[in-house]
Amino acid sequence: MNKIQMVDLYNQYLQVKEEIDNAIFDVIKKSSFVKGQEITKFENELAQYLQVKHVIACGNGTDGLQIALMALDLQPGDEIITSTFTFIATAEVIALLRLKPVLVDIDPNTFLIDTNKIEKLINSRTKAIIPVHLFGQSCKMEEILYLAQKYSLFVIEDAAQSLGTEYYFSDGKKQKTGTIGHIGCTSFFPSKNLGSFGDGGAIFNDDLAYKIRAIANHGMIKKYHHEFIGVNSRLDSIQAAILSVKLKYLDEYHAKRQKAAEYYDKELKNISWIKIPTRASWSNHIFHQYSILVDENIRDSLKLYLEQHEIPTMIYYPVPIHKQKAYLKYNFNDNEFPVANKICKSILSLPMHTELANEQLSYICNVIKRFKP
Fold it and tell me: How would residue 13 be classed by pLDDT, with cut points 50, 70 and 90?
């Protein structure tokens, strides 16, 4: 049995090695490493996949969120609502732009922002909601869109972990996350379902694409003419060429992750001290992560036990944003986040990637079954 890894990027590469190598060497031959034709090609391919008019590639997912906020002409002190249970980048860009992060607790089953708790936080200073489509499934977008329309708010989707996830509207329509709100953002960090060989990100928008594209390139509309205050955030041509190859296999990658998740479900669902991931009825799940819940008194000992048996695990996330030292200045009330506080102490993510073999999955599950809580 091959060594079990949390994410097996090398063996995934081997499956498309010839295509990837050819794509990389083609860029090297052209030596157009920045703003090359591979960028436009990938942007168009991803736009077609998502069924949007415009995709703007950028340096990373964090930049994508920041640029999206910059495009909205917000003012210092304006409030942005988002989840307390997410990677720090979501709140970080809000703080960097001197906006105010307003955090919301999460649903105990899906770990997604609790839409029932959003409206009471909206006031005259609220300007946007950033729903985070965590671990591979969508937030309740119809409820969020209703609030956005009611209070004239922007919706910026953080789809860094959900590229390709479909949201099911109540009328039967399906739409991919990142394309539902006003602006969508994603990340191509190597471990993502569509991962590059370095950093990368993209922004999706049909109405503000001109401005967003300029902001990502120093606010430039043509060479040395700057219409907006901008940043330097560009996906390089080699990463775009790699992503073009891997995009062709993205739905296949999702299917492999879903198959692995089904294996975990079948083997772990009857273990009394484990809660397997919940599938939301309003979304499919592409399993960027497979995260179980166990009692907080045994989580760390289970993690150590698995590591002793050469099974890697991760804790996403050990500390919610409202408890992070850098964000204490916002004076969040810890009592308003009972679910996130509990989840952070009991969540554990198991290996999840496209190259998980049944032999490895069997070993992981059998080792877990032998654990004595």
Answer: very high
Instruction: Give the C-alpha separation, 81 to 90, whole Å.
Output: 10
Q: What's the CATH code, domain 9-103+112-247?
A: 3.40.640.10
The secondary structure element, H or E, covering residue 70 is helix 61-70
What DSSP string runs through 298-366?
A: THHHHHHHHHHTT---B-S-SS-GGGSGGGGGG---GGG-HHHHHHHHHEEEEP-STT--HHHHHHHHH
Instruction: Please classify residue 117 by burial: count the beta carbons closer than 10 Å to its beta carbon, then call 0-12 exposed, 13-18 middle and 19+ buried.
Output: middle
For residue range 284-313, list pLDDT tens digits in order.
999 999 999 999 999 999 999 999 999 999
pTM for this entry: 0.96
Angle between helices 358-369 and 250-268 (to 10 degrees): 30
Q: What are phi and psi of 185, to 5 degrees?
A: -135, 145
**Domain 250-369 bears CATH identifier 3.30.70.3550:** no
Residues counted in the chain: 373
Structure confidence by residue, pLDDT tens digits, 116-131:
999 999 999 999 999 9
> What is the amino acid identity at position 314?
M
DSSP state, 128? E
CATH 3.90.1150.10 occupies which residues in the chain? 250-369
Handedness of CA 190, 192, 193, 196 (dihedral sign): negative
Residues of the chain with CATH 3.40.640.10: 9-103+112-247
Q: Give 106's DSSP letter.
A: B
What is the three-class DSSP state of 224?
A: coil
Q: Mean pLDDT over all residues of the chain?
A: 97
